[in-house]
Amino acid sequence: MAVQVMEWGYIDWKHVKTENNPRQNMNIGIVVIEPGRHLAEHVHYGQEQLLYVLQGRGIYYINGERIEPEPGQIFYMEAGSSHEVYNPTDGQIRELLVSNPVYGAEEISIDTLVNLGAPSDDTLYAAVEGVRQQSIDPLNLPLTIYDTAGKTVLQTSCFPDYCTEHCNPLANSGCPCRGMGQSNLSEPWEYRQFVCPYGLTLYQQPIVHENRCIGVIQGGYILLSTMKSEGKTSDRTEELYDTPESTALSIRMLLRRIAEHIVSFCVFSDARRVLEAKERDIDDAQQYSKRLEKNLKAAQNIVTDLRINHHFLFNTLNCMAGMALDKDAEELYDAIIDLSKMFRYTTKTKEQFVPFSHEAAYLKTYLKLQKLRYEDSLQVDIKINAQLDDWLVPFNFLQPIVENAFTHGFDTNNLKRRLSITAQPSGSKVLISIYNNGAVIDYSTLNRINDSLPSGSEHGLSLIYAKLKMRFGPDFSMNVYSDERIGTWIILELPYSYQKEVENDD
């Protein structure tokens, strides 16, 4: 892997994401801060990071708090954190760095999508306002969004002090960067990069909806070492953080993701307009109710599949970093790669239905990570008939059911934890059983859970029930059983359809 030389030292990258493969999100490297050097204060725009101090002692400032860590100490810094390091010693500081882009909102809720209000002719303005709270504000990223006339739709307030001192973009309509957003409104609509008169690098990401550019996101405002080496900066840039290319790449990916969220909001808004136009032509109230229910459930299914739990990611990474203290790095690296496989599966899959073998592989990867937590105290048995490999099932329905055992079954169980998953064809049906020997469920609670499954409530099993109902209609069953002497089962009985039959239905 590449070694990136900085003014304060260098980063020896062990695993680096690439812009051509955005599903591989994590960067892993060894950071070295040389003696007497200063890693200037900077903000982790759109990146959450895990640092494990391998060697040396220095003075750290994280969100303004002074820390003098010992080797072996672990830090987690959420996106938007400020970070600064002094090395006053005559030895190197060495750190293990794991960074991961954070793309703003984990989901756009059904309530947000449904309660858009009356459709507006100002599509971009409505979409930006709709996604702002969940997808833009949490990032603390300096950016400006322009419409096709070059007018400012949104400008965040978190610009670097360097920008404020030179031209104050928040108050100065004459800032030289303001007019540059209009340069990306003609074909071809593509990402562009330029350097402002004061030496900072800016990025432009077009917002393209229905083959038409409706605006531009302009962000970045960072100092790149390549610009300094070419003499394209002012004298004051010596005070700025020399931004690694990995961070610059993360910022570009964030701008692209914000544009995708805006376009998704526009698509949903357009779909709502079409739906409302059709509703005006429907006289039968019962038919109107059925169509509305179908559209809402389809939207709910899409939003459910887009959920990505970054808390789970970094809880697992903390566990992995702890392992690095007493186990070799290869095991840690393999575990991180397993975790990246899970996120790649959940983010790259566009189909509503996938082969059952894909769901089983995803489940096995998830269970390997759970073994990191429970080690020998967890016993897992999986028996899946190979005849089911090509059977098409709803995307991401099996792992959340198994996760329910860890969330509710094993949380208070200190004994040997046993988990058993079986899937077997039985005539025209497939029987799936998920068993755990964790906490049992009392009779009244068990009845309440089973009664609430078809209700469409927001708890996890109810969402899975709704997903199965959309695929199989009424021709399936899902029930929870619990015995105080043995444990708890979730039993699924699903229609067994071959791939060609399912494709014809779709």
From TrEMBL:
Keywords: ATP-binding, Cell membrane, Coiled coil, Kinase, Membrane, Nucleotide-binding, Phosphoprotein, Transferase, Transmembrane, Transmembrane helix, Two-component regulatory system. Residues 306-378 form the Signal transduction histidine kinase internal region domain. It holds the Pfam family His_kinase. CDD domains: cupin_RmlC-like (cd02208). GO terms for cellular component: plasma membrane. Residues 30-96 form the Cupin type-2 domain. The keyword Lipid biosynthesis does not apply. It is found in: Cell membrane. Its EC number is 2.7.13.3. Residues 140-230 form the PocR domain. It is an enzyme of class 2 (transferase). GO terms for molecular function: ATP binding; phosphorelay sensor kinase activity. It is a multi-pass membrane protein. SUPFAM superfamilies: ATPase domain of HSP90 chaperone/DNA topoisomerase II/histidine kinase, RmlC-like cupins. Residues 275-309 form a coiled coil. PANTHER family: SENSOR HISTIDINE KINASE YPDA, SENSOR PROTEIN KINASE HPTS. This is Sensor histidine kinase YehU.
